[in-house]
Structure formats: structure tokens, C-alpha cells
Amino acid sequence: MRLPVWRYGGGWHGHDDAVAIEEPLELRLHTPDGPLPLGVLMRTPGDDHDLLLGWLVSEGLMPQALTLAADPENANVWHLSTPEHARLAAGARLSVSSSACGVCGSGSVERLLARAIPPEPFPVPIDPAVLADLPRRLMTVQPTFAATGGVHGAALVTLAGDLLVAREDVGRHNAVDKVVGWAHRRGVLPLSGQVLVVSSRAGFEIVQKAVTAGIGAVVSVGAATSLAVDTAAAFGVVLCGFARDGRFTVYTGAGSLATLAIVGDHPL
């Protein structure tokens, strides 16, 4: 899908950009007591039947006999019927499976954003030059990545560009959780007026974690997905991607950024 975005590289350029689609796929297990959410996978729509079969295999839940059927009214819901419903219900983790993290979330499509708290507005406009420099700043505090090239990084930064904390992990969602946990231990949640920078792409789970921590801006080195953009827009989060070499793309919240030279037909 294509969305209107702004790109910063010393000046602003407005245009349309392609964004990968990310949507939740819920698998509901039918039991004598009614349907039970067996899992929610964040995915790009397509080949859903194969995706669900593969997930059942990898989770050790594949029954000897089953019927998988798409919901006729909701393309993001599938139904599973099997004589082994009791075993599957007992073994299910009943949580959200992500395209990046395996399991990180709450259990059904309806509860994905149950704990979300809209962040407070920024007290002053964000300097785009500060955001453009964040990937470089993050790299300076990633010793494990420098040594191995095999981990992601996440950091909290003030609007003035001061680094508060940085963490690394093989999972980008884990790196963010470590940063949020650091803030929780210090009793400083919600993290209003601060920016989260991640070395990865910005999928739904990254923006979800930012929103639940009250973080008002997310900057990623990689792209953002469609659901990440939708979630950021719904909760007033500034979402920037492709941050590298002094440039970045603004998907949502451009009005919170200080403007420089505008190139194009539409002002920020």
C-alpha cells in the first residue's frame, strides 16, 4: 500500500511511499465451551492457510485431524476445529505471535491495545536534526553489535538529544522491553517528552510498546509497516523510519517537528 509521507534530509520533501502491510491474524479454536483464541500472528496477508499450518507445526500443536476455515466476514480471523481441542487449549500460549518476536502481546485481536495510553503532546517542536542524528548516536552505544553484528539496539533520548539509556538484544522487541523496564524501575513511566530509537524496522509491536510506555516518538533505522503507521496515527505518536545518513521519513506526527525548508506542495 502507499501512504503520504515526508522525508527529511536538510529540507522537507513530501510524496507517497510504499509501506508493507501488517495485520493481525487470529486463530480461534472451537471447543464445547465456545471459541477460544489460540493465537494471534502479526503478518502480511497472503498464504494464511499455510502460515497457520506452519505455526501449528512449530508450536507443537498440530493435531492428527483438523479443519481450518477462514471467517466469511473477517479476513483476519480463521477457525480451527479438531477432536483434540482439549490438548490444544491446554498447550496454547494464548498470546500474540509477531512477525519478529515469536510472542509479545495480549491474546486476541480485540485486546491488542488494551493497555495503550496516548502519549502527552511534546512541549516544544522536535528538532529534525536531532532525530536525523539518532542512528549514529545509537551505534556508539552498541558494543555487542560492533563485536558481533548480531543484535538489535534500542535507546531513549530527550528532545535535546541527550541519551538516557541504551540496551541491546538479539530481539528488537526485547531491546525495547529492556529500555522500558529500566524506566519502570526508576519510576519514570510514562515516558512523555522522550524519543525511542530502534536499530530495526518499526513493526506494530514496537509502536505498541512505545504507546504503552507513554513514549511520544519512535525513530527506526528501517521501514515502518502499515499497522505500525495506523497505530501511531491513532495514538498521536510521531513515527519516523529509514533514519540513516542524516535523513529520515516521517509517517505520522509531522506537525510535532520543527520545520525547515519545505519542498513540495503541502506544508507540514
From TrEMBL:
Required for formate dehydrogenase (FDH) activity. Acts as a sulfur carrier protein that transfers sulfur from IscS to the molybdenum cofactor prior to its insertion into FDH. It is found in: Cytoplasm. InterPro entries: Cytidine_deaminase-like (IPR016193), FdhD (IPR003786). Keywords: Cytoplasm, Molybdenum cofactor biosynthesis. Gene3D superfamilies: 3.10.20.10, Cytidine Deaminase, domain 2. This is Sulfur carrier protein FdhD. It comes from Deinococcus rufus. Belongs to the FdhD family. Mo-bis(molybdopterin guanine dinucleotide) binds at residues 242-247. The active site is at 101 (cysteine persulfide intermediate). It comes from the Bacteria.
